[in-house]
Amino acid sequence: MKLLLALFGGAVAVAGADKLTGNKGYARMFRHLEWSDNAMRAAAIAETAGGVLMIPPATRRLGGAIVAAVSTVVIASELQRGDSKLAAPRALVLLGGLLGVVVSQRT
């Protein structure tokens, strides 16, 4: 489970970095959600930092909490717009972040 969470953190960090570098698909998605470029960058920074922090066991709990927090905000925005197709994959990211918090508390 620890290796899986580290890999998950790395994947989240890469997705956040993609948003920071201006990936057109992510930019289009956030525009669709009516987020400003600064709001998208803030979410991307949080996602990148949270993902990186999930990699080492010592900071996994904090990273998971950051990933869960930013995912909650994005999901709320997606659901407000009635975009359940976008919210479902993000819910898995939220779940992964929460799993990082819970598993790290047990070890």
Q: What's the topology here?
A:
Layout: H1 2-20, H2 24-32, H3 37-54, H4 60-80, H5 84-106
Helix pairs in contact: 1-3, 1-4, 1-5, 3-4, 4-5
Explain the overall architecture.
The protein is mainly alpha-helical and 107 residues long. The protein has one domain (2-106). It contains 5 helices and no strands. Helix 1 packs antiparallel against helix 3 (37-54) and helix 3 (37-54) packs antiparallel against helix 4 (60-80).
Key descriptive features of the protein:
single chain; 107 residues; mainly alpha; 0% strand; globular
Estimated helix fraction: over 70%
Q: What's the total number of strands?
A: 0
Give me the Rg, rounded.
13 Å
Helix and strand string, N-terminal first?
HHHHH
Strand content: under 5%
Structural class: mainly alpha
Helix count, DSSP H or I runs of 4 or more residues: 5
**Could you say how many structural domains there are in total?**
1
Q: Quick gist of this model?
A:
With 107 residues, this protein is mainly alpha-helical. It is 84% helix and 0% strand.
